[in-house]
Amino acid sequence: MFKEKRFYRIRRIHCPRLEPADPVTIFESLLIEGGAALVPRLAHMHPDLVLTNGNVLTLSEKVPRVEAVAVKYGVIAQLGSSMELEKGRGRGTKVLDLGGMTVLPGFIDTHVHLDDFGLTLRTLNLEETKSVDEVRSRLRERVKSTQKGEWVMGRGWNERLLMERRLLTRWDIDDVSPDNPVYLHHFSCHATLLNSRGLEVSGINRSTKPPAGGWIDVDANGEPTGFLRSNARFMAPVGLNGVRPRPDLAILREAIIIGVGRAVEYGLTAIHVPSADHDEIKVTQELAAEGKLPLRVTLLPKVELLPNILQVGISSGLGDDMLRIGAIKIFSDGSLIAKTAAMKENFEGEPDNMGILNDEKVFSNQILEANRAGMQIATHAVGDRAIEAVLNAYETALKDTPRTNHRHRIEHGSIVPKALRDKAKRLGVVVSTQPELVTRNGDGFEASLGEKRMRYTYPIKSMLEEGIVVSGSSDCPLTYCNPLKGIWSAVTRQSENTGKTIMATECVSIDQAIRMYTVNAAYVGFDEGRKGTIEEGKLADFTVLSADPYKVGESELRNIRVEATIVGGKVVYSRGRS
Ligand SMILES: [Zn+2]
Asked: Shortest CA distance to 545 belongs to which of 561, 568, 559, 532?
């Protein structure tokens, strides 16, 4: 923790510096001249906040490291030595003595499902369960505290961690919850287990056909086991990942408050929220208006909203520094973990399974329209077949309506051979990827993809060095939005299960990894003028760390603690104080 000093002066001391101008004038000049023009004026005012005695790593080439930062009106006003900046303090200037702690530009995660994250944090956590019995006993407890007939929601079970090493079936849990329907979200977030009561309530029996892009697992006799993959999981009338009907707005609001609270504990100062729908947009906007968003949110509306957005004439970028509309979010395939990603070749040991490509005509047309309207586009594409189809669609759209600074995104970009990387680079496509999936599931990927494809599975270093802008993200709650964990994962690619390194040639440097969650993430959000580095005129967003990530050993990266998170010059999280 840092020491906090506040300087109150009873007597006015003459000070040659200018007193603050009227805020209205300041913001007018901000509007007219842009942030940069404001900086010389800000530097001549008493700052609102001064961070002193820090190891401030700016990630900017001009001044890579400073000791102190002064903040005025939520913007970085001046960088310098502690002595120099402390001199400029005035009445009410808050001074935080960092005692040598490290400060980075605020971390940004470009893919956080805020609603699901919050809702997930409210459900039964089965992430650490080691056996079927343990799942049963934890579920039994939860059922006891749930009203009869209500859904019991759980999450995070992973058959690879169970000593039985097999998928759960409804028969494992039926006797534990005879009256309550149960929904236990698989850790992949792309599959779920229902008990028999849950299947009944969802209208699923042995003659039910799965929806397009989904599977209902059955046993040797053709009976559903309760395990629903990909789109089939949406057949349950509850759940996570955007399942309808939604929880009511009050629960959603509570969930989002929980979600953003956890995000700032992880040191995040900004997140992008993909597939935002009516309710999530509405609740987030209300929270922003009430000043209850502790960090900056860029909403990526789900593609179903595209016609409405185009009708109204909204485009990416509408909003302010706290809440903004970003790219339109489109889907092209499934998940690598659930083996529904669209692959050019079959998954190992599953000769008929090349995953599922969504209707190419549909998503290509969505891309065409959104590009015409000047929107940024973020398309979920995991497998190489999907990525190729999406890049083709981007190419066609950009021929139809050429744009030089579109920054269209690939979300995930998991299986990316050289030819597709070249094409992405040529088209100016950026990639928002999730390093932690490599350390969490790398062994599983090896088993389902085989050696050849592993060479270009999450090829993060290749993408970066070939000149593609790659941002760091978590796909939270698939993995939690902990950037230090993501940085550790990108640098070590060390399996959390076996300790083995998953494709050492794709390990990135510590600097590259940190930039993925700062500089690159800012670029992906068209925010490089406001975020990503610590420079005068940029937003005063900082992540304060217990140690210097450039100096600790690689294995220690994930153990660095977030001491404080500062957004717009306001301490929104401080360890030991929340
Ligand atoms: Zn996602």
From this structure: 561
Q: What is the CATH number of domain 124-235?
A: 3.10.310.70
Q: Are 132 and 138 in contact (CB under 8 A)?
A: no
Secondary structure (H, E, C), 482-524? CHHHHHHHHHHCECCCCCCECCHHHCCCHHHHHHHCCHHHHHH
For domain 3-100, the CATH architecture is Roll (2.30)
Distance from the alpha carbon of residue 303 to the mean position of ligand 1, in angstroms: 13
Cα of 475 from ligand 1 centre, angstroms: 5
Nearest residue to 478 via CA among 362, 347, 380 = 380
Q: How far is the CA of 474 from the centre of ligand 1 (A)?
A: 8
Q: What is the pLDDT of residue 6?
A: 46
Across the chain, mean pLDDT equals 91
Q: Which CATH superfamily is domain 252-533 in?
A: Metal-dependent hydrolases (3.20.20.140)
Distance 111 CA to ligand 1 centre (A): 6
* Per-residue pLDDT tens over the stretch 227-272: 999 889 888 877 554 443 467 788 899 899 999 999 999 999 999 9
What's the gap in Å between 500 CA and the centre of ligand 1?
26
CA of 113 to the centre of ligand 1 (A): 6
Cis peptide before 245 (omega within 30 of 0): yes
* Centre of ligand 1 from the C-alpha of residue 473, in Å: 10
- Tell me how far the alpha carbon of residue 401 lies from the centroid of ligand 1, in angstroms: 28
The reported pLDDT for the residue numbered 307 is 96
Lowest mean pLDDT across 196-200, 219-223, 228-232, 381-385: 228-232
Domain boundaries, the chain: 3-100, 124-235, 252-533
Q: Compute, in angstroms, the gap from residue 412 CA to the centroid of ligand 1.
A: 8
Give the mean pLDDT of 379-408: 98
In this model, does residue 22 exceed pLDDT 80? no
